[in-house]
Design brief:
Number of helices: 7
Strand content: 5-15%
GO molecular function: efflux transmembrane transporter activity
Largest sheet: 2 strands, antiparallel
Organism: Phocaeicola massiliensis B84634 = Timone 84634 = DSM 17679 = JCM 13223
Protein name: Outer membrane efflux protein
Order of helices and strands: HHHHEEHHH
Helix content: 55-70%
Shape: rod-shaped
Structural class: alpha+beta
Radius of gyration: 44 Å
Number of strands: 2
Strand order of the largest sheet: 1-2
C-alpha cells in the first residue's frame, strides 16, 4: 500500500517534467558525503573526546562523590570525639566569692546617749574541687567505641570508592559506545550520500524515460530508510555525549558549541575582508 502511495505521488511530481524533458537531458551531480553532513548541520565527526584519565579525575567532583566524601569527613570527626570520650569521666568545679562583711552595733547607758558603731571587713574566699566518675560499662567500652567508629570511617571510605568505581564503569561504557557510534555514523553518512545520489540519478533517468516509476519509488524508499537511520544514530550520540558530560563533570558539547561559534565568526570576518 505504501509503495502504491509513493508511486502516485511521484507520478504527479514528475509527470510534467517527463513531458518537457528530451531523451538526453542534462544529468544531475551525485550527492557527496560532505554535502550530506553540511545539509544536516552535523559536527559530531569533529568532536574530540577527552582522555579517559581526565574524565575519571573530573568525576571526583560530581555531587554524588562529594556527598560521600563529606560523610567520610563526618565519621572522622566522630572518631576524634570518641577518642576524647574518656574526659567525660572527670568533673572539675571551682567557686570564688569576694565582698565586705558589715557589722553594726549600738551601746548606751543612763548617762550616755545611744551610740551606733559600724565596722566593715573585706573578705575573699575561693574553693576548687573535682570528682571522678567510673561507670564500669562506659569505662570498659571506651576501646570498643573507638574501634566501632573506625569501622564506620572505613565503611564511608569503601562506599565512596564503590560509587566512584561504578561511575568509572558508566563513563567507560559510554566512552566506548560513543566512539563506536561515531564510526558507524560516518559509514551511515556514506550510505546516505550514495542513496541520495542514486535517487537523483533515478529521477533523471525517469525524466529521460529510461526507467520506471516503480524503480524510482524503491530508490526513494531506501533513501528515506537511510535518512531515518542516520538521524536516529545522531540523536543517540547526542544523548550519550550529554550523559557523559553530566556524569563526568567535563564539558564536551559546550566546548564544541563554542568552537563552532568561533569558527563561524572567523569565516564571516574572512569573507568580509575578501
Amino acid at each position: 500500500m505504501k509503495q502504491l502511495y509513493a508511486i502516485i505521488i511521484l507520478i504527479f511530481l514528475f509527470a510534467g517534467y517527463a513531458k518537457s524533458q528530451e531523451t538526453h537531458g542534462t544529468q544531475q551531480s551525485v550527492t557527496t558525503q560532505d554535502e550530506v553532513n553540511s545539509s544536516i548541520n552535523i559536527d559530531i565527526a569533529k568532536i574530540k573526546l577527552p582522555p579517559l584519565s581526565v574524565l575519571y579525575e573530573n568525576a571526583r567532583s560530581t555531587p554524588s562523590i562529594e556527598i560521600l566524601e563529606k560523610e567520610k569527613q563526618l565519621q572522622k570527626k566522630l572518631l576524634a570525639k570518641e577518642k576524647r570520650s574518656w574526659m567525660s569521666l572527670f568533673n572539675a568545679f571551682g567557686n570564688v566569692s569576694h565582698g565586705i562583711a558589715d557589722n553594726i552595733g549600738s551601746s548606751t547607758d543612763p548617762t550616755t546617749p545611744l551610740i551606733y558603731r559600724y565596722t566593715g571587713t573585706e573578705q575573699t574566699s575561693w574553693s576548687v574541687g573535682g570528682s571522678v566518675t567510673l561507670p564500669l560499662e562506659t569505662l570498659f567500652d571506651l576501646p570498643g567505641k573507638i574501634k566501632r567508629q573506625r569501622i564506620q570511617v572505613d565503611i564511608a571510605e569503601l562506599r565512596k570508592q564503590q560509587a566512584y568505581e561504578e561511575l568509572k564503569i558508566q563513563i567507560a561504557h559510554l566512552y566506548v559506545q560513543i566512539l563506536s557510534n561515531i564510526e558507524t555514523l560516518q559509514r551511515s553518512a556514506e550510505h546516505l550520500a550514495l542513496y541520495k545520489g542514486a535517487s537523483a540519478i533515478a529521477e533523471q533517468e525517469y525524466r529521460n524515460r529510461r526507467t520506471t516509476i516503480d524503480a524510482v519509488a524503491q530508490t526513494k524508499e531506501k533513501e528515506f530508510g537511510a535518512n531515518q537511520g542516520f538521524a536516529s544514530l545522531r540523536s543517540t550520540i547526542n544523548d550519550q555525549l550529554l550523559m557523559l558530560e553530566i556524569i563526568s563533570h567535563t564539558p564536551i558539547l559546550t566546548i564544541q558549541e563554542e568552537l563552532s561559534v568561533t569558527e563561524g565568526i572567523d569565516k564571516n570576518e574572512n569573507t568580509e575582508l575578501k
